[in-house]
Automatic annotation (TrEMBL):
Species this chain originates from: Aphidius gifuensis (Parasitoid wasp)
Protein name: Ribosome-recycling factor, mitochondrial
Similarity remark: Belongs to the RRF family.
GO process terms (BP): translation
GO molecular function terms attached to this record: ribosomal large subunit binding
GO cellular component, one term: mitochondrion
SUPFAM superfamilies linked: Ribosome recycling factor, RRF
C-alpha cells in the first residue's frame, strides 16, 4: 500500500513536499501520517485503493451501520414495552380480585402438593402415608386406613381394619408415581422399596411436566372465566375492558412463571444423581 501511494503521486506533488523528506521511506511515512489524521478527524474515512491520485471514502458503510443500530434500538424498545405493571386497584371495580387471586394461589398450592404426593424418589417417611385413597366416595390418606410397618427394603401394610378398601389401596399405590408394586397376602400388603433408576427418574420428571401442564391450564381457565364475565357487563367501556384484560393477562402470566420455576426446580431434583 505504501509503495502504491508513492508511485501514484505526481512528480509535481513530490517537488512541493518539505525539504527534509528526501527519501522514499520518509515520503511514504509522511503520507501515512496524513492519512491517519484524516481517519481520526473525520471518523469515517474508510480508505479504498487510490484511484487517479485521489482518496475515496466509502460513505455507504456508515449509512448501513446507522440503519442496523436503529433497527436494533427499535426492537429493544418494542420488547421492553411488553412489560405490564400489575395494579389490582385498577380492576377491583370490575373484578373480585380477592377471589381471583385466591383461585390462582390455590392452583399453585395444588401443584406443590401434587409434586409432594406423587413425585417422591424414595418412599421416605411422610410420603407413602399421605398417598390419597378414594374409598366409598371420600378421600382418605393411606395412614388413615392401614397400619404401616417399615423395614429396610420393604414396607408392610396391615389392612385388617378396612379390608374392603384393599382394591382402592392397591390402585392408589400403583398410581402414586412412586414406582410401587404392592403384593397382597390376605389383608396384608408387602411393598418392596423400588431401586431409583435413571428410567424411574426420567419417568417422574415426565409426570412432573404433566402435572404442571394441568396447573397451567387451570390458571388460564380461571383467567378466561373472569374475562367472559367481564364481557357480560354493560356498565364498562371498551377502553376499560382492554385495561382489565391486560391486568388479568399479566397476573395469569406471573402465576404461570411461578409454576415454571416450581417445575424446573422439581425436575432438576428428580434428575439429579446422588
Amino acid at each position: 500500500m505504501r509503495n502504491l501511494l508513492f508511485y501514484n503521486l505526481p512528480k509535481l506533488a513530490i517537488n512541493k513536499l518539505p525539504a527534509h523528506l528526501n527519501s522514499q521511506t520518509n515520503i511514504t511515512r509522511y503520507f501515512s501520517i496524513i492519512s491517519t489524521k484524516k481517519i481520526v478527524n473525520n471518523k469515517v474515512n474508510l480508505l479504498l485503493p487510490v484511484n487517479n491520485n485521489h482518496v475515496v471514502i466509502n460513505k455507504n458503510l456508515l449509512s448501513l451501520s446507522c440503519v442496523l443500530l436503529k433497527a436494533k434500538d427499535k426492537g429493544d424498545k418494542k420488547k421492553s414495552s411488553k412489560a405490564q405493571h400489575i395494579n389490582l386497584n385498577e380492576i377491583s371495580e370490575f373484578v373480585d380480585t380477592d377471589k381471583f387471586i385466591s383461585q390462582m394461589d390455590h392452583s399453585i398450592e395444588e401443584l406443590k402438593n401434587n409434586f409432594i404426593k406423587h413425585l417422591t424418589l424414595r418412599s421416605s417417611a411422610g410420603s407413602i402415608e399421605q398417598i390419597s385413597v378414594n374409598f366409598e366416595g371420600e378421600e382418605f390418606m393411606l395412614q388413615e386406613l392401614v397400619q404401616i410397618v417399615r423395614k429396610p427394603k420393604m414396607i408392610v401394610l396391615n389392612v385388617t381394619t378396612f379390608p374392603q378398601a384393599l382394591p382402592q389401596i392397591i390402585e392408589a399405590l400403583e398410581k402414586s408415581g412412586m414406582n410401587l408394586n404392592p403384593q397382597q397376602d390376605g389383608t396384608t400388603l408387602f411393598v418392596p422399596l423400588p431401586k431409583v433408576t435413571k428410567e424411574h427418574r426420567e419417568g417422574l420428571a415426565k409426570n412432573a411436566k404433566a402435572i404442571y401442564i394441568k396447573c397451567r391450564d387451570n390458571l388460564k381457565d380461571i383467567k378466561n372465566k373472569e374475562l367472559k364475565n367481564l364481557k357480560k357487563k354493560t356498565s364498562i367501556s371498551e377502553d376499560q375492558v382492554r385495561r382489565v384484560h391486560g391486568q388479568l393477562e399479566a397476573i395469569c402470566e406471573k402465576y404461570i412463571k411461578d409454576a415454571d420455576v416450581i417445575l424446573d426446580t422439581k425436575q432438576k431434583d428428580l434428575l439429579k444423581t446422588e
